[in-house]
Amino acid sequence: MAFKEREESSDVSKARTRLAGMKKIDSDKGKVIEYGGDVQSITSLILEDLIKDYTAKVESYNQVLKSANSKANEIDIVESKIKKMHATVLSSAPGKFGEDANEIEVLGGTRASDRKPTTRTAKAK
């Protein structure tokens, strides 16, 4: 099972485009323009720092997912081995103890005498 890596959101992609425009305007004007108001300061420098922080966090998140994928693969391998051993134990038990032995039930199987015989019904015409 593979976990899906996180991709850059469309909002961040748009912000990168906006940042490029902000930097161009800052360069043309020769100073850093303040786009925010009294409530929040918004400049190209602040936006650039936020985008860098976002990128670092996404990369870190994706690294954790890669590690989780690796562990999930290891778990799947061990689980497969357990499943094969379990099936082998159940299939070899009748040969060791007999088809009607109590040991078959102890191992989680069904004794031959406990199986319901199959009955066929005639098809209606």
Short account of what is shown:
The chain is an all-alpha fold.
Structure, described:
This protein has one domain. 63% of the residues lie in helices and 0% in strands.
Write the layout of secondary structure elements.
Blueprint: H1 10-29, H2 44-97, H3 102-106
Helix pairs in contact: 1-2
Task: Output the keywords.
mainly alpha; single chain; 125 residues; 3 helices
Question: Major sheet, described briefly?
Answer: none
Discrete helix count: 3
How many β-strands, per DSSP? 0
Question: What quaternary form is this?
Answer: single chain
Work out the strand percent. Answer: under 5%
First-residue to last-residue Cα separation: 48 Å
Mean pLDDT: 90
Q: Which blocks of ≥5 consecutive residues have pLDDT under 50?
A: none
Number of domains: 1
Identify the overall geometry. elongated
Determine Rg (CA atoms, Å): 32 Å
Share of helix among residues?
55-70%
Task: Give, in order, the helices and strands.
Answer: HHH
Label the structural class.
mainly alpha
